[in-house]
Amino acid sequence: MGATTTQTIDKSGLSYPPLHATTTHDSAAVQLFVARAQMHDSQRDWYQEYAYIAAICRMLDGLPLAIELAAGLSRSMSCARVVQLIRQRLDVLMTDTQDTPIRHRQLTAVFDEMWHKLSDTQRAVMRQLMVFQGGFDDAALQAVIAPTIAMTNDIVIDVVLRQLHDLGLLRFQQMRYSIHPLLRQYVLERMYAYDDVVADAHMHFYMGCISHPALNNVRTDTMTVVEQLANDIDNIYVAWRHACTTQQCDVIAAGARPLHVLAICTGRVPEVADILRETAEMLCTHDDTPAYVFVQLALWEGRLRHRLGDYQRMHEVALRAIAQSNGVYLAEEALATSLISIVESSMGQGEQALQRLNAVLPNIADDNHDVLADVYIRMSEALIFTQQDRRDDVNRFMERAFAAYRYIDDVAGVANCHIWLAYQSVFAGEPQKTIELLEHTLQMAQRTGDRRVIGLLLGHVGNVHVFFGDKSPVHIAKIEAGLQHLCDISDWVCELEVLHLLMYAHIACQQFVPAMHLLDSAQQRIIHHGNPIQQLLFTDISAMLCMTLGHGDTAAALLEFVVQHPSMHAVYRPSSIQVLAQLIAQFDAADCEAARQQCMRWQEMPLPVAMQHILTTVTKLTAKIP
After folding, report:
1. pTM for this predicted structure
2. Which CATH architecture group holds 118-194?
């Protein structure tokens, strides 16, 4: 503890666990915390609190002095409480241990000494740098700080930056600057805040970054832009919140859509959905907020709620978008209408959804391809859920959606259409065409680097191979690789979809133990994220596993619950029918050809009718299961 003031802000700090780390004993920061904590209480099992200890080490950015002080704090409280206190104020990081030098008994005292040793120029630059969160590059420095500091000469600023770097107060790694998060927290707590002019410049710079055309849709160049912005997510959030507090309505309206795309591509869907909701609530307190801003916020929040399976909230914001548009913003009304149609189709009201979509279709300009694509996709889905065989119309609308997505180079949209069309080939008994279509789409997605689309396609490619009887481990491995892509970007919505495919593949290969383990994992994810529709999606998996264990009555009851559930249509697609048919045939005749024929017969029926036939078949099979 006998370090100098400048040494207490180590340029690198101790290594600490990354976010979502599951292993223990793996970093110098954690080991230091536990070693110091055990000096206070050797009987306590500190590694039971590993998740909170890791969080403390991340918050303190591996700073040894801060970690030692936090470990001392934990002797009289849980590590979870320590996390809360540090977030509130740095003053809590202190000790009364007599063998600790007085100047190091409180972290803020160390920072006080350091701050007062800086020159006026150094303090002025440091104050303005506090606007950045999570680091910044030279372009941001020149756009945000240089024009607003009194010394506008670049050489002077460079000299100050070098001085701050030599003092350990400013880091420069991989072409980016960063400030220790504890130092930033200290400066802001002491009200050494940056100027409003700097905050405005910061907001315009980062909101300008997300206005890139590639963030209007998931195009072939979108992931390149997303990778460039990946390190600046925190700065983008800071800029967005400043725009909200200062009522920069034009900036907010223009940024809602790209922020939505950024959320999808980075797996940050839940937090961005909440940010859009909070923004709308904040602006509601101002009577002069233009209606168009609320339309944009409601619309793009609704799209994110769809991905989260939160149909109730999605329906609410879609209705709000239409009401606030009041017939003025027709394209936005069409997109909101498509969200409402999803809810209606999920409730078995396909005809009503189709009528609603047909009514808005004439209002969409011929060159508004992204809106046309979205509406055509929803029209296809609505037709699937009607009580009539409308396959030709479904294909026609799907082809129109595909053409529109392809015109605007929307990779995610094209991939979605290809997956649907591929399963149509499955039902037609065309394995080679199916596999070629999905493999071609996968190659296209790999060129873009979009890990979300790559993960989904790997899952579906592996699943189709297994369905057509090729039960090679390599295809299970493809699905697992797709799952890993989605886990890496924390896209739990798509992750559950591919997890679903992986369990189907294991069951089709009669690998029931791995399927059971995966089901437990899926249930934990669903409980954590609280999505009842995803819960419903895995009910048929549970039914199939019950059949393998000889619990036929339970399997029939589970599928009956699925058929009768109001949201059954929201999670079942034609692909679900083909997998269920295969599994049923496996227990009936163990004949993949029989499964395919049965699948094709069911596919001729409307989805609700097909599911009733599946239920009847499972009920009959219960008598055959030993």
Report:
1. 0.73
2. Orthogonal Bundle (1.10)
